[in-house]
Each structure stands twice: as structure tokens, then as C-alpha cells.
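task queued by scheduler; priority normal; single chain, no ligands, no partner chains; default sampling; output format set to C-alpha cells
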Amino acid sequence: MTSSAASCLLFLRMKALEEAELCFPQLLNSSCRKAMRPHSVSMLIYIVLSSISLLTVTLNLLVIISISHFKQLHTPTNLLLLSLAVSDFFVGFLMLFQIMLIDGCWLLGDLMCILYNVLDFIITSASIGTMVLISVDRYVAICEPLHYPNKVTPKRVLVCVCLCWIGSAFLHSLLLNNNLVQPGRYKSCIGECVIVINYIAGLADIVLSFIGPVTVIIVLYMRVFVVAVSQARAMRSHVAAFSLKSSVTVTAKRSEMKAARNLGVVIVVFLLCICPYFSVAHTGQDTLRNASSAAFVICLFYLNSCLNPVIYAFFYPWFRKAIKLIVTLKILQTGSCQTNIM
């Protein structure tokens, strides 16, 4: 083989290797490069994330059907859980787009990129807002039990949930306005999905969507915890002297405190999953893409949406009973919405 032929062959091999690492091989000068990793590792990531996505969508769909179908579950607290399940349901779908970005290539175009990111921001913000509403609900139920039936009604909760979602959509439409007006304006190569938020907008986002709500959640639940402990001590010290009527009141208080404990578990798990993500995401524009902790915090963030229904199944007998009725298709029977599910 002549030296010219060998050089030509080497050039073709290098070109083929270069094209194999590009998102769009036909665009040699402008295409982004793929994130190269062993095939077995890529397949494992795809399988794990796809399984989490499917499980998240399925479990949260069961929660949505349960609370929507059975009229006995149409309580203010359960309406908040319904809002949380809706956001978690959409997170399961958004995971499919995150799976597409595993190799570093976005193949759906600039418009879909910005829509994906906007939806991600809105859903995350709405989830945190719903957690704030859950904290307020438990605060009123434990700290002001006599006023709870009048202050917290299904209609008022529904209005608050709608305002939470509308406010989240409005806020992030403003914060991401530059990206929405001209999708793809900040990308450096074809196949990249990136958005840029200026310093002021980023600061407003982290204060309104994370620091502020999380502070409110922690303060309210600390207050709930203190009041719940004092009430538990009072009930233990006076339980022997209670009349039948008082016993009913004690049972109601215990039920409210049990609900506060169960929802407290949901909130603690939520904070443990979301705080690392926000901490890493706001330390720099490219931190999530380059840091070694990126994969962990992203998976933890998405895993929370799958864990919430599991927590319900563990703590709430009504959810387990509802699942049986749904899986056996008994909810299709006439009058099944009136079933005693509690």
C-alpha cells in the first residue's frame, strides 16, 4: 500500500470516527458532539430511567383516578394531593425527554427544547407551591382546628390550586421570555438544548420558586410539630378523665395529627430530593452538565415523583383499597363513585 493510499485510509477512518461522535454527522462544522460512554452503561441508564418514568406515570395516574372518582375522597387535603399527583404525572412524561438527552443530543428542534424547559420549570414550581398549600392546610388543621372547616373548604382549595398553577405559568413565561421569543438563540451548536436566564431573573426564580416556599414550609411544619407534641401530651395526661363526647374529640385530634405526620413524611422526602437539585443547579450555568454529581441529583429530583405514591400506599389504607378497585375494574360499575373507601 502506498503512503498516499494509507494517508487517505487514515483520513477516512478519522472522519468516520468523528462523524460517529456527532449528533448530526452530516453537519461536520456545526453539530454538537455526543457524550461517549460504554454501550452497556448507556443501556443501563436507559432501562433504569425508562422504568422510573413508566412507574411514575402509572402510580400517579392511580392517585389521580382514585381521588377524582371516589366522592368520599373529595376533601380539601386530598385535592392538594391530587394537584401534587398531576405535577408528578407530568414529571414522569418529562423524564422521557431527559432520557433523550443522555447522549448529549437534542433531536426535536429548538421549539420543543424551550417548551420542554418551560414545562419543567412550571411543573417544578407548581409542585413546590402545592407543598406550601399542604403545609398551610396542616397548620390550620392542627393549630386552629375549630376554624378549619370554615377556613379550608374544597372550593377555596381548588381556587388556591388553580392560582398556584396559573401563577407558576405566568412567572416562568416572564423569566424565560427571551428564550421563548427566539428559541435556540443561546445554543453553541446544532443538537444542543440550552436556555439562559440572566442574573436578576435567576435570582427572582430561586427566591420565589425555592428559598421563599421552602422557608414557609419549614416554619409552618415546625409550628405544627410543636403544637402536635403539646396536644399529644395533653391527651395522654387527661385521657382517663374524658367523657364519651370528649373521646370523640380526642379521636378527631389524633386523626388530624396522623394526617400531619403522613404529609410531613411527604414533605421531608420532597425537600430531601429537591434541595440538592436546586443547590447544584444554581451554583453555575453549566454545573449540572459537567459536575460528577449531576446524574445523582437529577435522578433524585425525578425519583421524588415516583416516591410520593409509594408513600401514600404505605400510609393511606384508602389508596390501597382504591388501587384494588381500579385494577379489578370495579370502578366501572354503576354507583362505584359512592363506594365507602375510607
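post-processing summary
- Residues 2-19, 285-292 have pLDDT under 50 and may be disordered.
- The first helix runs from residue 3 to 20.
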